[in-house]
Amino acid sequence: TTNFEVYVSKADFKFNAAHFVAFRGFRERLHGHNYTVGVRLLGSRKISHDGYVMDFGDVKAVVKKVCKKLNERFLCPIKSDVIDIQIVQQDDVVVGNNSNKSNDCSSKSVILTCEDGAKFVMPRDDCAMLPIVHATVEELAIYVWSEILIGLDSKILRQRGIHTMEVVMAEAPGQEA
Predict the structure, then answer these.
(1) In sequence order, which ranges of 14-172 are alpha helices (DSSP H)?
(2) What is the separation of C-alpha 38 from the centre of its chain, rounded to a whole number of angstroms?
(3) Tens digit of each residue's pLDDT (9 = 90 or more) over 74-112
(4) Exposed e or buried b for every residue in 104-115, given b needs 16+ CB within 10 A?
(5) Which domains does the chain have, with CATH numbers?
(6) Most-buried pick from 5, 103, 155, 162 (CB within 10 A)?
(7) pTM: predicted TM-score of the whole model, two decimal places
(8) Alpha carbon distance 136, 93 (integer Å)
(9) Cβ 13 vs Cβ 148: under 8 Å
(10) pLDDT 10s digits, 12-46
């Protein structure tokens, strides 16, 4: 039995997203980051029958899927205690200048009203609705960690002797959690 550590970080473990951080008495301006993700797996068993600690291909597929889900989205913290978030259905959207023409499909919008009175309205499809309180890199790292854990299957990780998974997430070079 040996201890091992596997680290996976690829150029395409990234996503671009907009966000702002808000808490009592404070709200950042809306801005974006080019986020990157790295995954470290730690264990204490022998390498498996297939020669792997964990197949890099499995890790890469899961991380890419999580990044794709967040790419080019507004990161919406649905557990915020200072942002009122509503999802509204908008039927019969008028198209062009002719009010007699309407779009057959309906669309959803997300309306965010902040403690300071600022209001943001965005298409629902442009938002990643995340179960976090603040859209900070720290809370995003926890969210991404949980999504990777689900994707890799904790039972399989245990079978392979992996006892710890770390996610390193950066919103800019030198700014990591």
Answers:
(1) 56-70, 137-152, 154-159
(2) 13
(3) 999 999 999 999 999 876 444 444 444 344 445 899 999
(4) eeeeebbebeeb
(5) 4-82+129-176 (3.30.479.10)
(6) 162
(7) 0.86
(8) 34
(9) no
(10) 999 999 999 999 999 999 999 999 999 999 988 66
